[in-house]
Structures are given as C-alpha cells and as structure tokens.
Specification:
Blueprint (H helix, E strand, L loop, with lengths): L2 E6 L16 H20 L5 E8 L2 H9 L3 E4 L6 H14 L4 E4 L9 H9 L6 E6 L6 E7 L12 H11 L3 E4 L3 H4 L5 H6 L1 H4 L1
Parallel strand pairs: 1-2, 1-4, 2-3, 5-7
Antiparallel strand pairs: 4-6, 5-6
Length: 200
C-alpha cells in the first residue's frame, strides 16, 4: 500500500509572521529552514513505510532544499492558499501511484520517526483517516488519508474538528492520535518558548 508524505511550505520570507515581534526577518527564515530540514530528515528515515515525500511551495529555495533531501519538489501553481497547494500535491502523489498520503507541516520541532510510524500504523483500511491535533486541539499537525482523496484537506483555524467532521460525512474510519511529538507547532512566541530547548 504505497503511501507518500506531503510537506507544504510557505515562501521563507513570508513564514511565521507572528514571530516578528521576537525574531528578525533573517532569524525567522533561518528557523523555518532548520525546521524544514529537520522534517525532511525525519521523513527520509521513514522510507519504508513511506515511498517518498513531495514538498510543495512557491519558493525556489524551499524546492532546492527538497531536492537536497531527496524529496520531490513541486512548484505551487496557484495562489489560492495552503489547501489548494495540498490538493495539487495530492494529485502529484497519485500520479506517482500513491494509495495513501501523510500530510506533515514543516514546523513541528519535536517531530520523530516513531510518531509518524505510529500514525501510519494506525491508518485504517480505506476509507480511513488519521488526525493528529495540535496541543490546543484546534489545528491539525498530521493528517493521513487512505485513499488519497477520501477527503479534501481543510487546514486553518478549527481544522481538527473540520477534518473529523468531513471524515464522518464520507463514512471513513477515523482515528485520532494525540502525540507529544506532534502536538507542538511553532506559530507564536509562546510556542517558540516551549521549543527553545530543541531549537537553540
């Protein structure tokens, strides 16, 4: 059952704007790049069970980093935001014969191969969905789907409940994975403070 990972990444110069009050532009770009490289290293260590990773972005630097880490770089074609970019990446994964996908943001400082393998091991037979919420149980910090199109990604505020509700509408088997390795994403100064010991 071929499963591909998908990592969406904003342009480095635009990422993590909510950290502008505590980090310079250069420091924010460096932080995002380091977290992206960490994510890609972890995903590369998950092959197998993953077949590969698609990185979707409109930033040429991000796509170059993807190539350096043996991921498939996919230039974002539209300007309709994160979820449209993810749909584009899902189509690319399907073109590569993916039967399932694992969407992973590039801002999880505690991400581990063990946590991702746990998500993949719990992915039910089709139609199946695994959702890993953030620590506030509002956002989605990992989303696994089988088949790839069992639901459309709906990332953004409230996405955890939205993904669960959409899965139920599609009569999918839904598994919620609460994992310390997946719960922390770095969006706010408070998040950054929690991750200081890892990111310093």
């Amino acid at each position: 059952m071929a499963t591909w990972a998908i990592v969406p990444v904003k342009p480095l110069s635009l990422a993590k704007s909510r950290l502008a009050q505590v980090l310079s532009d250069a420091a924010r770009e460096d932080l995002v790049q380091r977290m992206l490289e960490h994510t890609l290293q972890i995903l590369r260590g998950c092959q197998p069970p993953l077949e590969g990773t698609v990185v979707v972005s409109s930033d040429a630097r991000v796509l170059s980093i993807a190539r350096q880490h043996a991921a498939v770089p996919l230039a974002e074609t539209g300007r309709d935001g994160l979820n449209a970019a993810l749909v584009q990446a899902i189509h690319e994964a399907e073109r590569r014969r993916a039967q399932g996908i694992l969407i992973v943001p590039a801002d999880l400082p505690r991400l581990s191969a063990e946590a991702l393998r746990d998500v993949l091991e719990q992915l039910p037979a089709a139609p199946g969905v695994v959702v890993a919420p953030d620590q506030r149980e509002e956002g989605t910090n990992a989303l696994a789907l089988r088949p790839c199109g069992v639901l459309e990604p709906a990332f953004g505020p409230g996405s955890f409940r939205r993904h669960c509700a959409e899965g139920r509408k599609r009569n999918a088997h839904i598994v919620v994975v609460r994992s310390a390795a997946l719960a922390l994403d770095v969006d706010t100064p408070e998040d950054l403070e929690q991750a200081r010991d890892i990111l310093s």
